[in-house]
Design brief:
Elements (H helix, E strand, L loop, with lengths): L7 H6 L6 E5 L4 H12 L4 E6 L11 H13 L8 E4 L2 H15 L5 E2 L5 H5 L5 E5 L1 H4 L2 H10 L5 E5 L3 H7 L2 H14 L6 E4 L8 H8 L4 E3 L2 H11 L12 E7 L2 E2 L10 H7 L3 H7 L9 E2 L1
Parallel strand pairs: 1-2, 1-3, 2-9, 3-4, 5-6, 5-7, 7-8, 8-11
Antiparallel strand pairs: 9-10
Helix pairs in contact: 2-11, 2-12, 3-4, 8-9, 9-10
Length: 291
Amino acid sequence: MPVPDADPQDRARSASTTRRVALVDSGLGLVGYADALHSLRPDLGLVLSLDPDNMPYGPRTPEDVRRLILASALATLPYEPDAIVVACNTASVHGLEALRAELEPNIPVIGTVPAIRPAAATGGPVAVWSTAATTSSDYLRGLVDAFAADIETHPIAALGLAEAIESGDVAEVDECIAYAVSRTPGGVRSLVLGCTHYGLVTERIVAALGNDVTVFDSPLAVARQTLRRIGLAPDADQPRAGVETILLSGRAGEAPVSWRAYPAGIRLLGVDEERARSGGPHGGGASRASA
């Protein structure tokens, strides 16, 4: 779907009247975070910087991830963002320090982290779904040791789920969810989503796991932190601004059609829901989730 004129000079001229936040990720993981931010402050202008030329980031070296996420963030600077959100766990692990060294204090940089601490507060057992690379990483082990050392915790590799979400193929998404469920021990009370893509299908995950499992994700927490960093309070009654620019590996472009597979994508694009359903798959239904 086309987005409004992405001329950086136009964006700069309106900077005095529009507060703006950029979100960066390799792919659709940023959609849920942009949607959460938009729900709290619909008047914010959003610059979404994806990197389809180089995704996924998971198998790449830390040096590659650092270089790529820095390039995605720098591509947003002509649009004068008030803050940049790194809506990717892998990029936050490997690139957050470099981004902050480059951009702060002038532009706050907010990272993402799996919500293990609030999930552990429920008393467990806790499952953590993530990509294969994250599941076996020192990063995840460190989070578990720091926040859930005394809690029964089960890291689960949700093989193929991020890629299925990226494609917008809901049937494939359900197959990947079923696989991850089959690897999740019975009796788990809390599930942490350890990949930013997974929140786009929370309702499908809940349907597969059952309502006895509470899902923990971080978009709302990250959105609130972003507002704090730029000195704004949540105010859902503000007039709508929303997505101003979409960058694809640094080039101004359009939202991938796969966004219409997800409620968050539909809301961000301002597409009529019935029309979106007729144009592609759509995952609906209530979910039991916590941020």
